[in-house]
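Help!! Second protein's tokens look totally different from the first
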Amino acid sequence: MRARVVYESIFGNTEAAATAISRGLQEHSEVDLVDVADATPASHSPVDLLIVGGPTHAFGMSRRRTRQDAADRIGGPFGPNESTAGIREWLDAEHGPSNGARAAAFATKLQRPGWLPGSAARGIGRQLRRAGFVLVRRPIDFYVVGMTGPLAAGEFDRAKLWAQHLASEENDRRARQSR
């Protein structure tokens, strides 16, 4: 199985979750880990499983303005994403999946306060479905301590375990289909 993890990260938290997911997938598949800021046309090539993640900003997926606001909070430019698109824009440019293409969505968001609504994962999942992907699991959030992180205790391992289960289920499904 070939998998690709495409992520957007400003403070490094979503990148840490994406790295954990990539490591979990590597036990069961060949994996490409792609920062959306470095995405190329090859980042749209077909894979068996596409996993897309980003930070939760203003209760949903980031926009250019929320990315700039996040950078302003830490007193500097927001790096590669300053002149490039985020996950929202990358998904808009996604060329569409081949028939039956499968995907999953994740996001990072503040752990506290627990009542804080919104999730970029849900928006990513909706956008993937609209593009024609079949979501293999409900979108998931991995939690961050404070505005700039780090990932909350145990979240790196939880992301890796989530990916291991995801890849195992996908490989089992593929094996059943080939019989």
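Here's the second one for comparison:
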Amino acid sequence: MAAEKAAGALRTIGELAQEIGRPQHILRYWETRFPQLRPLTRAGNRRYYRPEDVALVRRIHHLLVDEGYTIRGVQRLLAGEKKVRPSPAPASPRVSPAESLQAVRDSLAKALKDDAG
């Protein structure tokens, strides 16, 4: 039995097909129907799925098999999410422009003082 891959490791099309219980040709077909699904391709057209690709394949599979969506329905759902999805919020806390300028001014004053002394 093969060792389990790390969560962030690339998966081959065979590994992913086995994981979701679908043949490889279904995954290749999904690539033609869902532009969001773009695995890395290497020499000989070997496909390697990144963690975000794996998550998308699992989601497509869930929507088709468990939720009963059609291919067209999943396409519309994913296309709609892409348009509506907001940009990620900045990780840093909000700082007013005055506070930001004050921090820059203080940093420059310290640098000048250190340079002179």
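Reply: Different proteins will give different token patterns, so don't panic. The chain has five helices and three strands.
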